[in-house]
What does this fold into?
Amino acid sequence: MVEIADSVSPLSSPFDDLNQEIVRRLREDGRAAYDVIGQELGVSGGTVRNRVARMREAGMLRIVALVDPVAVDYETNAMLGVKTASGVAPGAVAERLDPNPAVVYVMWVSGRYDLLVEIVCDEEAEFASFLNEHIHGHSDIAHVEVMTRLGMFKNQFLLKRHVP
It folds into this structure.
């Protein structure tokens, strides 16, 4: 028998149709008024407020400010395909790279690489320095493929959350 914990409400589920619509609108404008969202969706502002509160309390939703890398026009944006050295867990390399502010995305993947790592730098020199200091010559990395951005067609990923 499968039981759902009392603290998990179907109203906080990200799979609920109304919640998906609320989140879709908050992605467009995280400061949108709940009353306006409610009018667009045919529900009250209080319903939207309650749904957002439930999703936040359940840890399913975070409303954050982010910098759009396309608008800021960073000089260098690259994806690194990283193959870890034999006997090295991808998580260990991810932990080593995580504190660096240039690293905005790290994903453990299957296939050709072990990790995909997105790097965003203000200048090409900063990018070259990152590669030299954190990638090349490190014994925990067997191979890296550097794929620099030529253009951006879509980017809706959040930038890395900085914890003080």
